[in-house]
Protein 1
Amino acid sequence: MVPTFVPRIRQEFSIGRLVAGLALTVSGALVLNSTDASAFTPTRDSDGRLVHWAGGSAYLPLVGNPSNRSGILAGDFFDAVIRGLHRWERAAQGAIRFDYWQGTDPGTYGAGSTLDQFSRIYFTSQSTSSALGPSVLGLTQVWYDTQNGEILETDIALNDLAVQFTMDPRDTSGAGPGVVRSSLYGSRKVYLENVLTHELGHAFGLSHSGSLFSTMLALETPEEAHLSCDDQVGIQSVFGRTGGRGRIAGSVRDASGRGVFGAHVQAISIERGVSLASTVSGPRGDYVLDALEPGSYTLMIESVSTGVSSLSGFFAGAAQDPCVQAGVARTFLKADSSGSVLSVLEVPAGGTISAPAITIGCGGTALAYSSDRIGSWEDAAAFSSAPSVVDGTRGDREFALVDRFQYSLTQTYKLSKISGRLEVHALGASISAAVVPRLSLLDASGRVVGEAVESAPVDVGSSGMVNPDSKLVASNLASGDYFIQVRYQGLSPYEFPGGGATVDSIPFVVLTGVVGERQLSAAGALADQARCRMSEGFAAYSSPGGGPARSGARASSSGGGGGFGFCGTPAGASERGSVSRMTFRAEPSLLVKLWVGFAPWVFGLGVMRLGRVRLRIRQPVANL
């Protein structure tokens, strides 16, 4: 997958009204402002129009054809589709409803993407009009009203001509820590639910995410069948399930003070020790992270891991931003310009906190980051040299710091005069550091505190992929001085989603810690776990009787002369009847195609490559 924008929830953010009010005179600059930012990357067309479901909720009547050449059984396909729908339904907290019908009769369950009032999911081997490139695993076409951006219909094509889909979660074209790969170039076998769940995210209004462990990452990787924190916050934001949540608003600037368009912003929760949500800065460098659980956060700025071209047409101009072209240096919101201590932002329930403007460096290539040279502490065998990050005599209860491993494989930090409960998280691979951190707690004499329990890795998936970050919890500590030691183990860049191109060249770690009990007000909606991994014990589902229902497509004469647009089109497709018969506004630029394909990555001389669908009809169009 991301600015927080909640359709039809806050009147001042209603981009549909802005576009309608300014009609054809709206330029990108008029609608691409700070209010267009969100806690995820929504789908927007090149005019900035949000492509969304009407009324703050979605009902998706989906029609599936299970015929395929991968050997997936019809019953397995049915179950996989239902699980994918249930995941997004549960994450959206009641805002999503669905029904699903499945069959092979071509008259009812045809395999193709046309505006016919049926939302479909099918395999490309069964279609004569849905040819996809060999590096594209799936594509979602979203048909929407060009006047107000409301979604009318969505069609999903799964490319079984390119790969063999399986029901084995260990099969992947990508990579991840702990995953055994059959070859450097990945497998031609791919777990169906990774692709299916990702494409359903597009159907419900999400674009791609820049977070490496997100389901909505533009690259197929292990565990994408299971929604991450970023995905869940994103879908809750898009459907307005934000009661009691807060937001962070700020801006990203280069050294001259110019706003940077297309920087990836991640909100790291201090209490949870995870990157909870992300967004991409707008044309003026502004961003908003919405739907955040109230609590303490710090921020990390970086390049979009898969490049801004993997986002919707709204971000097309970001590719021309000088800093994005050169590469956004990974930058943290620091308490001072030269140290390692990070600023902590307290997000209030139902309110907004304004973050200081973050100045970033620009250099390197678009997919290689040059990090800040953050100071490295001594390997403190003599604890007197360890920097103090918490002082209980001042009432400190939390901390966040970033540090690099430079001359030592062990870093030591002092916790002064603390007592009671302590929880510390060490983040490495989850935020693009080629580091497997390990934690230990020592007392003032240098002895390991036996009551401190380390959990590492913090997440293990059914695919075998792990999140190798670390967590340490100690309870009932006697009042005194303690020391946190972080030990460094390297991680191969080729174990990362996206390969070496998405990994920072400098080994670094982020530490977050809380002294005392944590307050997680959104624990009921977001599991207290590194991926926010939800329970997937879903109720049994049976299709309604009476045959498939139609989607909400309206006649092209709908009010205001709106016309229709759509997101995505298969490569090699002709100007099909569904395109030529649509009624558009007189200005053809309002027909915007956004590529929402899902491309697996391959290694080519150490460089990640994204397959791209090429479109040709009448005029250039924007890709997602």
Note: The mean pLDDT is 78.
Protein 2
Amino acid sequence: MRITVNGDGWCYLDYLEYTPLCCDVVDKVPANPTNLTATAVGGSQIDLSWLDNSGDDSDAEDSFTIERSDDGGSSYDALVTVGGVPGTGNTVNYSDTGLSYSTTYCYRVFATNTMGDSGYTTEECDQTGSPDGPAAPTGLAAPAEDGKVTLTWNANTETDPAVLYYMIYRSTTEGGPYTAVAVVFGGTNVVDSNVNNGTTYYYRISAVDTWPNESDMSAEVSATPSEPTAPDEPSNLVVTGKTDSQISISWTDNSDNEDEFIIERKLGASGTYAVLDSVSANVTSYDDPGLDSETEYCYQVKASNAIGDSGYSNEVCDETTGGCVPDLVTIDDADPLIVYTGTWSAQSGWPERYNSTLHETSSNGAAAEFTFEGNTLDIISETQDWGGTADVLIDGVSQGTLNCQGAVQFQVTLFSKSDIADGTHLLRIVCQGNGWVYLDAIRFTGCVAPPEPPAAPSNLTATALSSSQIRLQWTDNATTESGFMIERKLDGGSYSQIGTASMNDETYNDVGLTELTTYYYRIRAFNVSGNSAYSNEAYDTTPEGGQPVEFLTADIGGGWGSITAATGGYDLVLAGREFGGHYSDDNCFFAYVEITGDFDVSMQVVRQTWVPGYNEDWEAKAGLMARWSTASNAEFCAVVSRGEDNGEAVQSGYCEWRWVPGGTVINGGAEAHAEYPSPASVIPDRWLRLQRVGDEFFTYIKATPSDSWTLIKHAYSEFPGVPDTLLVGFTGATMDASNTISIECDVRNLSGFGF
């Protein structure tokens, strides 16, 4: 629009009026919002609501500004701006979150457009709530001992607010009233030592958070401390199964403080009871194998702990069967009834396996065959990361796959078949060559025909190797033996069994003998069906004792030490960081001789000091070692004794080995023989033995000369080709990386070092 003045007089313009064609014009500030409300929701949120009084045209708002005060309305700060809402009479909502517990907040709101701000709403205030208290603790337990009660419970999981501590309440009356006796910060256990034996105490606990809000009390538990006593006698002794060579028994455990159960057996009702074996606490069954068929055996059981023995259970007697009776039968992988073809490796000395033995193969087509008469079948195996699979066939028909690949598990049933027809069947397990396949045992319900008694060994010879060792050799004429029993006597004495050899063995080393003494030997084979006849008798006389000409020494990897001849042996000083353990190279002192071929060395450790208070997480150790060379990363196999400063000193045997230069050291089984209160800076006597047969090594321990050797570990090189000549001798380490701390080790009664 344009207005033009003609210039012929005055023209006046006061205002213009027009009707817009496309849009509204805002020319007013928005109306004041009203009806503001503030409502607390829990402990950290307040919900706001107000009425929008502006229209859609000249006073329409663009936004609302919310101001908040946390000092009761004395001062306000802008909190947030929210967009306007078209139309008039609308309700606008906003939630203010993340607030503090138990705090009063005040609010006011105004509207805004291009013309300016409206007036404020009325001020509205509200207070956030306080947090809920924590949940009552769960899992409270209170085992009692002599003069104390140990309380444990599950930790509460609240985080906002978190639990700060736990209140411990106690009463001598069930259901209370309770008295607070302890406060526990940062833990879920406490020991109540302010108790009297014979009194029953009732406990409840509560959790308290940082406000502090206290929870409800937990469920009540009770405990009665008492002086230690001998265990209660077991009961309900029964025979649970029998075959022609085994009786199985079970009983009821009536005590909670036994260390073991002692099983006694006698031959028939008129026999005399003698200790047969013992089992650990809480074990309530026992299998007695190797019995004569059609023979009556009687059993009784008692519980035992450090205080004493319980009374005996009831007596139970039963007779072995005269032949095959269908039953649940377990056949060990080492049983000669299982026939292996192809390349298999037999392992022993692994307590995780059934009877501590295992057969394994990764050779494609290698098979294990077993003939049985039964209706159900389980294959007991294990899984490993590098495990593979095998076909399972019964009478030539595939029944599925034995899968040994997976996380490490021992003695697991990896194949089951429950609908096998009556009759005799042939089981074949055939390796598919895609990893390792393991056979631990075969279990079936049915019968297995016992093998014939084994043929007698022959050509027994006895050869004195030193003043304390005689080696036996013989010819194995049997194909069904489970092993050989070794018997010995002195001149004019009676024979008694001194040990056993495994099936197919043809050598045995008798160590720890006395010089200038004649020893007589005989052996016989055995299996489940009985014993063979004896071999011929052989004997030899140990020579007068002496010492090896010289022990060589090596400070391996920076270790150091010394060896000094003493009456009947040597005194050693040993220092070094470690051999084996977590390291791929060794740091130790080594005194040795060179031995070619098989050997069987042993010694008595009569004194071994260690370092209590220094190496608290590890141990000082010393013992026998066979080593490929003196290089710090060389292959080795060792048997050692250790002392540990973790509250006790332990006299123990321990086997470890390295088969690859610089490779991972593997720790084998350990055999503890005694424990002594700490501090005990000198570990008592023990005997250690290290034997080589080809590429296999055997480690043993015993506590006294008259004890039988206990096998710690049968280790074999995974990489055939162990050198003919090895370095064999003594070593030790203190776990001291600085090599400044040493231990002393005195060894006597050496055997097998060239006497």
Note: The chain has no helices and 56 strands.
